[in-house]
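Follow-up to my post from last week.
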Amino acid sequence: MTNETLAGYANVSLYSAMAVFTIAMLCYAVYLAGLLPARDRAGDREPELAVDRELVSAGAPSETAGTPVSGTPRPGRPDESDVPSRARAAAGIGATTTWLGGMLLVVSIALRGLSVDRWPLGNMFEFAVMGSMFTSIAFSVWATKRDLRWLGLFITGPILLVLGMAVRVWYTEAAELLPSLQSYWLVIHVTVAVLASAIFTLGAAASAVYLVKDAFARSGRSSFLDRFPDAPSLERTAYGLHIVAFPLWTFTLIAGAIWARQAWASYWNWDPKEVWTFVIWVVYAAYLHSRATSGISRQTATYIALAGYACIIVNFAVVNVFFVGQHSYSGL
Amino acid sequence: MADTITQPRLGLVGWLRWMWRQLTSMRTALFLLLLLAIGALPGSIWPQRSIDSARTADYIANHPKAGPWLDRFGFFEVYASPWFAAIYLLLFVSLVGCVLPRSKVHWTAMRSRPPRAPARPERLPSSGRAELEATSEEVLDAAREVLRGKRFRTDSHDETSVSAEKGYLKETGNLVFHLSLIFVIIGVAVGHLWGWKGDVIIPVGKTFSNTLLQYDTFAPGPWVDPQKLSPFSLKVDKLDATFEENVTGRGQFGQPRDFTAHVTTEAVPGAPPKQSTIKVNHPLEMTDAGVFLLGNGYAPVVTVRDKDGNKTYSGPVPFLAQDNNYTSVGAIKVPGAGPKQLGFSGLFLPTAIIDKDKGPTSIFPDAKKPALALTLFEGTLFPGGRPQSVYVLDTAEMTQVKTDKDQPLRIWLEPGKTFELPGDRGSITFDSVDRFAGLSIRHDPGKFITLAAALLALAGLISSLVVRRRRVFVRVSPAPEAGRTVVTVGGLAKGDDDGLQEVVEDILATVQRRLGSA
Ligand code: HEM
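User reply:
Got it. Predicted complex:
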């Protein structure tokens, strides 16, 4: 039994979310454009200066005792005194609309779940919507702790792309599940997998921005990237995201194996989907490893992380659709 | 003379040591990890014999040039191929060679004191300084207490400093993670060596006892004694199957919704019978084996009689489903028929229609309008006594029975109907429709080792990624003004540590507050 009215409202909510994300994306684009004119003035500024000024206020406790604190830079907010207020306002709207879009996706997912009376993670359409929801919410939450306005466009853009694919290519009408998918391990395993993928998405976006910024910084050409946090701090942000996602992915792997033993008698069958989940895990393990290996540059390590993300995309968009295996029933 | 002999021997040892160093280096580990990822991929691209041998055979037949070469290099058995084994074995040798020495180093580090404070802690990556209204002893005592309150281990190597360290759990977690990976592999190996797996099809009403002979297929690990299986038995009382009968959405009509097998089991012969159910995703756990419902289908019950009306065959015959509507193929073999043995071959259709193009076919998976569509062969059923599939007739020494018009004889049967076979061959009756349960029974003694090791690895991983290894040094010196002390705090971390400066400042501020000079 499916409730078509609720499913209809779920879709309305989804389309509203897409409209709202479009606004968010445009706002973040305006913000980045706003960084452009500042380039000429910013070109000869020392990037560290901005961070140092930030530190003085961060050292407040010891200032009260009248003694200065010296220290190393922390990744803080980049200096924004010469970002046009128009751009700052746009970024503010971007942040708010990203929150709103995420909430609309939550509503859409909840309605869809109610309409089919099950956890709304049974086919690629539902994976894509929940993945976008986790990505936008994780981004918004992270952005309350750090300045991530520079990342906004590179998150809302891909979210819109994925939602567009979801409604155009992967759309599946609300329906019940096959017996093989009726398990609470589905809820645990797939939800965590989608959450991990969402955080890997943030990590990949930050990694890509880092590589571009690093290339520009080394070529000495100036661009709006000059107003982003410095390259090492971008790289640390990307790493910070990856080390949240990696244990989640490890858990996905273990939960998947437990479920496989419940459903298919054997916890590991080298089914194409399992192979790719394993490969993704190994590639990201290699990334974490390479970051601790002397003689491997941060750039090389970041490329390995991006290779891991490429595997995630293949696993979702290619393996689900074209490879024959026991996961093939997930429905398209 | 002695020189010429010892030189090459030393060289060999040196060379081996060099190889060992290379193998256990982080770089090699990284290379092997990436190689492992790449090596695992072909198994998802080409069909694998261990998963689907029929598809593999098809693939090789359809690719006469590439197929045999791919086969030679193990591309159809990637996970059992020597090159794949070489990658992971080297990786694990490297792992052991890397982790054991590190464990020893870490063990000593955990039991030793934090190192001596540098003379000028302000030169460390993070630092802070303040002047306080207190003696140096008071400041050091306060610093010690604050640090212990923040779970640092503290020590002093001289009168004017405190050294502190915390986050040993980071390295511990990392070692636990890597060591647990070894146990994951051990668990897999135990399951492979002592585990077994068998498949069997049991029509409703039949009893299965867990002995080698009763299995349709049985795959034991190399160290399994198939004569000593756990002696349980299991009777399938009923099999419920429900399918979607409402048109609720694209492609949903006729989709399976629930399968449940109701069974009666005996743990050992003569034990009190116990009733349970097996569902997809809900296996039944017996002693030393899990029983999984992986398939189901129809077993039409038929009776074959000779020309005098004596039963030559009676019972359910499983037919194997070929599509989502359970158009099923099978064979009814009647070795007791005379004068020649009879074999029926054909289709069982749960909801039968005769399609203009496809011929007899089923349009719904449930048994709404069942029918059997058969043809008849006579001759020798089991030529040479070779093993053969129960679902297919071996017609090598059989001939097809024809009608007067020299057309193959076609038999169409609905439940309750009898078909008189031409030429004094007797009759066949379609009595009723039963279902069968396709069960997979598996014993894996290593699964708990693997599970425990995997969870331990996860715990180790989390603590290694979350915990920060930090050293903090506090040094005091008298201020120019009497009764006041200058205190310098410096922090040092392993790897990047964005929060270190904050920690140093926090320690400094807490010491100040404690001494009441804020
Ligand atoms: C099955 C193979 C391996 C996997 C999946 C693996 C995975 C990982 C992962 C995910 C990390 C980062 C998390 C952490 O810091 O705990 C890590 C760190 C590390 N691994 Fe491995 N590893 C493997 C083999 C090895 C080998 C063979 C060595 C030694 C040559 C090694 C040495 C290290 C070291 C020293 C670190 C710590 C890096 C740091 O200081 O942060 N690992 N490994």
